[in-house]
Specification:
By secondary structure, the protein is of the alpha/beta class. The protein folds into three domains: 248 residues, Thiamin diphosphate (ThDP)-binding fold, Pyr/PP domains (Rossmann fold, 3-Layer(aba) Sandwich); 155 residues, 3-Layer(aba) Sandwich (Rossmann fold), CATH 3.40.50; 128 residues, Rossmann fold (3-Layer(aba) Sandwich), CATH 3.40.50.920. Helices cover 42% and strands 14% of the residues.
Length: 630
């Protein structure tokens, strides 16, 4: 690697001679590739924005100027250039740097994120706040092309020009979200980026007109370019003068680009020009996701975000047992081969949810709607009205975006949409924006909805089979990230009776009720209680809603203490449902609850965080013993 001074602040970057910037970019890429091979993380997105981030910090001045990164998983380079290079090896590790921008982590992180489509609205709010205060800082929004499939982005575009004259939006176009982008917007961007006539026009027109007519001809140059854009790339919308215009210019933005997002001198010159504009501007740059690392260029989807990998080959260590996501995809695909009514829907997550299997084997019934969870939920509702069996597969944390649709469209109309919530529970290294710790709370009070969680892989397939055959209304399942205890599914799944728990051990002074992946913790707690001479009954509840009222009331009457264990926040969680039911039944047996606190849980490995926050068998036993003593 080139010998360069340590960059510990944006000021040091500005002081670096221009001829050393390319070498600094090379050093950043090398650091990312070597560091993330040990920690895991979002490698591909960050390799693609090295030059962009260098240019932003070369031209603008954070923390005064504001950079709002959409999703913000491409913020590693930004972190490195703002005093955190010496801690980059702690990225996504317990008590280390967060994998996304975080306001509490640095004054240079002006806005936290983790979900797509939030940056433009937030940046507009910052720009308007600046205008109201009368200050002069710049606000720059950096959003990938996939973000433009999100509804909130278009809502912000619709309002921007009406509310401020100074806002810079960078459209980072790499044709990928996590998987390759889909839909009309992706095709539109591709048409702009790949049209050779527009490229030639944009490179030469301004230079030619300025040479021939002088700098005073800027307005004429603008009109010529706008007309040429309309001829080459019509949007089928007419302005009041009857000429065609670019999509973004219809929203009141001045559009520039597309330009090479890896041409650092060009980016610097462009930003120096854009910072002086007095209307909202959008700069369209073309980048490569994974640039500088062949395995990431070959498989951008895999290297969007991953665990440890071999630097030479890009290979990741194999999992000992299939993940829940892989089992889900294989099972639903096999069910669909026997049932032509089954369709699969995802929101830009075919790899993460495992549905790439369904996409490959049954493409005509596979639908990726892009990062558009609200649309995905409504789309599934429409399919359900036509007798189809939609499996809507979205991470628990992202399903929050479709909450209104779950109530207003699915539940009120009692439509049999199957909600498959991957990453239900702690998501570990990705942190609070990605933990699926709230879905029990936001679903269990909705009428008509059934909700469940399996204790192992075999029961998981039985539940999926039950969902495939359930026609009475919406039904949901939550399942954790990664692998389960390793119980191989049966050759043929069986239908489960809705609302019937599994009693594993029927006798005991204490009743342990372990929901889903916390059932193994309940098993450990039983063994620890046995060592203390305390016999414990053991229940796998299966159903979050409806609860098995008969089983709950029976064990609450025969036991001294009930203990519930769940991979969810305690407030409004599964244990709360148990307490409410027993109270209404007039049963006052003490209920000890094990789950996550009323807080946004930090990032870190699951074992470390469970130990810190008391989601352990030892803590359950301590609480049970204390309750028995009382």
């Amino acid at each position: 690697m080139p010998e360069l001074p340590e960059i510990t602040s944006p000021a040091e970057l500005k002081a670096l001679p221009a001829e050393q910037l390319a070498a600094l970019g090379e050093k950043i890429r090398h650091t990312l590739i070597t560091t993330l091979s040990e920690t895991g993380g979002h490698l591909g997105p960050n390799l693609g924005v090295v030059e962009l981030t260098l240019a932003l910090h070369r031209v603008f001045d954070t923390p005064k100027d504001k950079f709002v990164f959409d999703v913000a998983h491409q913020g590693y380079v930004h972190k490195m250039l703002t005093g955190r290079w010496d801690r980059i090896q702690t990225i996504r590790q317990y008590e280390g740097l967060n994998g996304f921008c975080l306001r509490s982590e640095s004054e240079h992180d002006c806005y936290g994120a983790g979900h797509a489509g939030t940056a433009l609205s937030a940046a507009l709010g910052m720009a308007v706040g600046r205008d109201l205060r009368g200050s002069d800082e710049h606000v720059v929004c950096v959003a990938g092309d996939a973000a433009f499939t999100c509804g909130p982005v278009f809502e912000a575009l619709n309002n921007a020009a009406a509310h401020t004259n100074r806002l810079i939006v960078v459209l980072n176009d790499n044709e990928w979200s996590i998987d390759r982008n889909v839909g009309a917007i992706a095709h539109y961007f591709n048409a702009i980026a790949t049209n050779p006539a527009f490229h030639a026009l944009h490179e030469k027109t301004a230079e030619f007109i300025e040479k021939i007519l002088g700098k005073g001809a800027r307005r004429l140059a603008s009109k010529v370019e706008e007309s040429a854009k309309g001829i080459l790339l019509p949007t089928r919308t007419e302005d009041r003068t009857g000429s065609s215009s670019m999509l973004f210019e219809e929203f009141g933005f001045r559009y520039y680009g597309p330009i090479d997002g890896h041409d650092l001198p060009l980016l610097i010159k462009t930003f120096e020009f854009l910072k002086n504009q007095t209307q909202p501007v959008l700069l369209h740059i073309i980048t490569e996701k994974g640039r500088g690392y062949k395995p990431a260029l070959k498989d951008p989807g895999k290297f969007h975000g991953l665990g440890k990998y071999n630097i030479e080959t890009g290979e990741t260590p194999p999992t000992a047992t299939p993940t829940y996501s892989a089992i889900f995809a294989r099972s639903v695909t096999d069910f669909a081969k026997e049932d032509e009514k089954i369709v699969a829907i995802t929101a830009a997550m075919p790899g993460g949810t495992g549905l790439s299997v369904f996409k490959k084997e049954i493409p005509q019934r596979y639908f990726d709607v892009g990062i558009a969870e609200e649309h995905a939920a409504l789309f599934a509702c429409g399919l359900a009205t036509q007798g189809m069996k939609p499996f809507l597969t979205i991470y628990s944390t992202f399903m929050q975006r479709a909450y209104d649709m779950i109530i207003h469209d699915m539940a009120i109309q009692n439509l049999p949409v199957r909600l498959c919530m991957d990453r239900g529970g702690l998501s570990g290294d990705d942190g609070p924006t990605h933990h699926g710790l709230f879905d029990i709370g936001y679903l269990r009070h909705i009428p008509n909805l059934v909700h469940m969680q399996p204790k192992d892989e075999d029961e998981f397939v039985d539940m999926l089979w039950t969902m495939a055959n359930y026609e009475k209304g919406p039904i949901a399942i939550r399942y954790p990230r990664g692998s389960g205890p390793g119980v191989k599914p049966k050759d043929k799944p069986v239908l489960l009776e809705i609302g019937q728990a599994e009693v594993v051990e029927a006798e005991g002074k204490v009743a342990l009720i372990g929901l889903g992946d916390m059932f193994t913790t309940a098993l450990e707690a039983r063994d620890l209680l046995t060592q203390r001479g305390i016999k414990a009954a053991l229940i796998n509840p299966r159903w979050i809603k409806p609860l098995d009222s008969a089983v709950l009331e029976k064990f609450a009457r025969q036991c001294k203490v009930i203990c519930t264990l769940e991979d969810h926040v305690l407030h409004n969680g599964f244990g709360c449902g148990v307490i409410e039911h027993l109270h209404d039944a007039g049963i006052h047996t003490p209920v000890v609850r094990i789950g996550w606190p009323d807080d946004f849980v930090e990032h870190g490995s699951v074992p470390v965080l469970r130990h810190k926050h008391g989601l352990t068998a030892e803590n359950a036993v301590a609480k049970i013993v204390a309750a028995l003593a009382r």
